[in-house]
Each structure stands twice: as structure tokens, then as C-alpha cells.
Design goal:
Elements (H helix, E strand, L loop, with lengths): L4 E6 L5 H8 L6 E7 L4 E2 L2 E10 L1 H18 L4 E7 L1 E4 L5 E7 L2 H18 L2 E7 L2 E4 L5
Parallel strand pairs: 1-5
Antiparallel strand pairs: 2-7, 3-4, 4-6, 4-8, 5-7, 8-9
Helix pairs in contact: 2-3
Length: about 140
């Protein structure tokens, strides 16, 4: 993996500090972070937990493309994209994106590009569990 890219899909708890430490650099004046968290309500229904399924090899490949494109498209130095798989409880973190750049605008833009593109193109599926059942939020695996 490039020195400027950190990609991870894991069933272990994601570590915000790990992502921050990876992108931090003395040449950068801006670090943008996106931290997705499991919320307790969706469309007025109480959520018990989320379950993330992945086609891991393809997901990693697609996330690498997103990171490489972000490095080319925006004036950023480093990017970390980490995603969880498996069951996550309310308040836990399914995704972290961290981006560093000499100036803040590029970090913000690259961070938004990364999360938006990830949600559109990466084979990671989310199942919401409620007290009265469960539902796939996007295409089924």
C-alpha cells in the first residue's frame, strides 16, 4: 500500500486515533475527519443494531480506487478509509475517513468525495435491526 493511503475493513473496533495519526503531517495545515456512527432512530423506528456485510476483496479494491482518485483530484497528502464489518451497536463507528492537506478546503472536499463515492460504489451492505424485524438498507449481498 502507498505511504499516502491507509485502507482497512475489519470486524475489530475502528480506531479514530489510528486514522488521525496516519494522516497527520507537519506539512499539512488541515485534517478533515468523517466519522460515521450508528444512530438509534431511522425513519421514526428504533434501531437495535446494524450489521455490515462486505465482499471484502472487491470492497478493498474499490476503496483503493477512491483513495487514489482523491489523491489525484484534490491537493491532499494522505487519506485513510477504514470500515467496519459485522454487528455494530448504537454509538459504535462503522466508517472513518481522514484526510490531510496543506490547506483545509482540499481536505474537506476529498473527505466528502470519499464518503459519497464509498456509499455509491463499494460492495458493503447494511442491515438495520429493529425490535420488530430487520431490513436491508441498500442492495442485498
Amino acid at each position: 500500500m502507498q505511504k499516502s493511503i491507509s485502507i482497512k475493513i475489519t470486524s475489530e473496533k475502528l480506531n479514530l486515533q489510528e486514522c488521525y495519526d496516519f494522516v497527520q503531517d507537519n506539512s499539512c495545515g488541515g485534517i478533515a475527519l468523517f466519522v460515521g456512527t450508528v444512530r438509534n432512530i431511522t425513519k421514526e423506528k428504533e434501531v437495535a443494531l446494524l450489521d455490515f456485510s462486505t465482499y471484502k476483496e472487491m470492497a478493498i479494491s474499490e476503496i483503493k480506487k477512491i483513495a487514489a482518485n482523491a489523491l489525484e483530484k484534490f491537493e491532499i497528502l494522505k487519506i485513510a478509509i477504514h470500515h467496519a464489518e459485522g454487528e455494530l451497536k448504537i454509538g459504535e463507528i462503522p466508517v472513518i475517513i481522514a484526510v490531510s492537506s496543506p490547506h483545509r478546503k482540499a481536505s474537506f472536499a476529498a473527505c466528502q468525495y470519499a464518503i459519497d463515492t464509498l456509499k455509491e460504489t463499494v460492495p458493503i451492505w447494511k442491515k438495520e435491526h429493529f425490535a420488530d424485524g430487520e431490513v436491508w438498507v441498500n442492495s442485498t449481498p
